[in-house]
Amino acid sequence: MNQTIELLQNRRSYRDFDGNYVIPQAQLQAILDAARQAPSWMNGQFYSIIVLQDKQIREQLVEWNPGNPQIKKSSVFLLFIGDLHRSKMVSEAYDSTYPINESIEPVILATTDAALALENAVIAAESFGLGSVVVGSIRKHGKEISRLLELPEHTFPLFGLSIGQPIVEMQVKPRLPETTVIHYNKYQPYVYQLIEEYDQTMENFAEARETKRWSQKISDFFATEPSMLTDQLLQIKGLLK
């Protein structure tokens, strides 16, 4: 097995970091460069990354996200922004129309581009022996974060990435059975028993932060009345009617 495959297959999330560790600037720059080199639709690069090193800003983010104290404790926090402001500038330069809120497609483009850049950053950090964890809950406070960081119109916070020196070793979390996720040539039906078996696998894994069976957690999430916060933010930002 080559080193890249080994790195990818052993990736895990870390939430406990050495608060005194400072990432060398050269490593941080390499992580950012790797993120920017990710695949992108049309090479449009419909995202931006805000590098948050300011402790006060990160303290405010933790105040809004108390379940994610690692935002402050990590060496750096990268905030990934769906960015359709840049393409608006291009459209204005060409004096062309910009019906950005007529379809969900632009939002999908920006989200996908940002996610690809995020994963490149994750693997780049791992290559330096650093740990990281993705923080998606920032979307719950997208409006507040937009004001705090002075995000322009047609931009929206998507997710963050805490990067630092881990102080607690983590195990590689088991994934769903391959046959429930990987399909060849067409979608292949599978029996629910495979999900039940995964529930048992995760119970045996016994991650302390998990308080429910995997299937119950997923069921509860989708049974809850959906939050419209992201929809409201996209409307405010001129990206959704």
From TrEMBL:
Residues in Nitroreductase domain copies: 9-164
Organism: Candidatus Enterococcus lemimoniae
Family classification: Belongs to the flavin oxidoreductase frp family.
Spans through the membrane: none
SUPFAM superfamilies: FMN-dependent nitroreductase-like
Name recorded for this polypeptide: Nitroreductase domain-containing protein
InterPro entries given in the database record: Flavin_OxRdtase_Frp, Nitroreductase, Nitroreductase-like
Keywords: Flavoprotein, FMN, NADP, Oxidoreductase
